[in-house]
Design a protein that fits this description.
By secondary structure, the protein is an alpha/beta fold. Helices cover 36% and strands 15% of the residues.
Length: 292
């Protein structure tokens, strides 16, 4: 079991982990037939034990791509957490308005487009998916969360600019660490943040650096985004840290191991990047975005 350390700073009260997942057993919550990985169980009890160690009290569940648009596992966990949580769902054409109403009552406040997870590169298809999702949820006060790499985000930047609801960019837009701040597309993310309705999760440092030990090389990316607009940045652990997988849809893909990461260390890295804006990123900003 991963040993989590306490962060090397005073964690603000009422802090929010804005990105995490739960997985049930296959018998209780079967994954989607076509998926990019098969998950091990990741229990809410284990997550809450970690959360207590690192000093945060609230959380945002993000629907795991392995479940497709079947949000049952996430919603069950949300029922247990009550007012201490919010959720980001995945929906499709089969999701009914009644289901959306029920999700809203439980605290769902956005939908996620899993682009990078499946290695999608068709911008027209993604544009249609994005517009369809906006049509379903914008009037509910929800937002759109896009998990995509920089080239796809560049292609969609005009759609993001004109979106009638907030748009959240996952994991810093997945820049490639070795290419540095000057890589194509990263400045675009910084510019989008100045618009006011675009947000970014300054999380997933290990996805940027692609290492299992030293993630400090990702700090310049987080710091640049926070500098661009500290009012529009949030952060999450990404627990339970799903390992590498095929990033393509398949029938019965293999089990994906979880990375053994210290979430206290990841939170300490955020503090280094955030400086005087730490409380905004952990408390005020997510309270606004997720309507706590």
């Amino acid at each position: 079991m991963t040993q989590h350390s306490r962060p090397a700073f005073a964690v603000p009260a009422d802090g929010i982990d804005c990105h995490m997942h739960v997985f049930g057993t296959v018998s209780d919550y079967p994954p989607a037939a076509r998926r990019s990985y098969t998950p091990h169980p990741a229990k809410l009890e284990d997550y809450l034990a970690m959360l207590g160690i690192i000093g945060l009290t609230r959380n945002v569940f993000v629907q795991a791509s392995a479940y497709g648009a079947d949000n049952a596992c996430m919603l069950a966990a949300m029922r247990r957490r009550g007012a201490l949580c919010r959720g980001i769902a995945v929906i499709d054409d089969h999701t009914t308005e009644t289901e959306l109403d029920e999700m809203h009552a439980l605290g769902v406040r956005g939908v996620r487009l899993n682009v990078a997870t499946f290695g999608l590169t068709d911008t027209d298809a993604l544009r249609h998916q994005m517009q369809s999702a906006i049509a379903r949820v914008a009037h509910r006060g929800w937002h759109i969360q896009i998990f995509a790499k920089l080239p796809m985000l560049i292609a969609l930047q005009e759609d993001i600019k004109s979106a009638p609801c907030p748009v959240v960019i996952d994991h810093m837009g997945l820049p490639e660490g070795p290419l540095g701040l000057g890589q194509p597309g990263f400045s675009t993310i910084c510019e989008l943040l100045t618009l006011g309705h675009v947000w970014v999760k300054v999380s997933g440092t290990y996805r940027v650096i692609m290492t299992e030990s030293d993630f400090s090389a990702a700090t310049p990316f987080a710091r640049a985004l926070i500098t661009a607009n500290p009012e529009r940045c949030v952060w999450g652990t990404d627990w339970p840290h799903i390992g590498h997988h095929g990033q393509r849809l398949a029938e019965g893909p293999p089990l994906a191991e979880f990375r053994t990461l210290d979430d206290g260390q990841l939170l300490t890295l955020l503090a280094d990047a955030a400086g005087p804006h730490l409380a905004k990123i952990l408390v005020q900003n997510p309270s606004t975005l997720y309507q706590f």
